[in-house]
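Support request, please re-run this one:
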Amino acid sequence: MEQNREEEIKDEYYQVERITKHKIVRGKKYYLIKWVGYHDRDNTWEPVENLANVTYMIEEYENKRKLLGDNSDMRSGKMKKRDRKDRTKIYDEGDSSAYAESKEQDHLDFTPSGAELSSTRIGLMDSESKKEGSFDKDQPEKIMGVVRQINCKEWLMKVKWKKDPKTLKRPKTSTYTNTELKQRCPNLLFDFYESNVISSI
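Re-run finished. Output below.
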């Protein structure tokens, strides 16, 4: 019975809702992760290598920090011993509606209250387009990660787009199935798979 429980824990997958903080411990960066379906008290500190499938969330978090001029890093010599809720298998950040809600909340969390944004910061905000990217008009730059699994062979994946050379604005990220990405940008899909292969050898 104990072995069945261990196998059940080993096979559990956890969904990242958002990244809330970061810190550096002995020169290694950790992110505080809010998990889908779990209370804030269940948040855990995870090293970057445990977050391979949600690198786009790390990029978004770091970009927001830069936008707000936050260059501080929490530094600590020790970390708490991790319990059985150590979430080492991560495949996405949850369903797209929960993700959209968390992004809206993240935007509010990172908006400086009453502070004037410098022209540099306003320039950064203006470089983002309000329209979502599509294969009809835009060129894909990178597959950022898996948003959610549809079935055993199909996933919904987030695509980052190249800046428009005329307007110098980048379209918003959008989601496509891996089947469609296999047809439209197989090299980017291969690069994504290759960068996320974890060997047990």
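Residues 76-126 have pLDDT under 50 and may be disordered. The longest helix spans residues 96-109.
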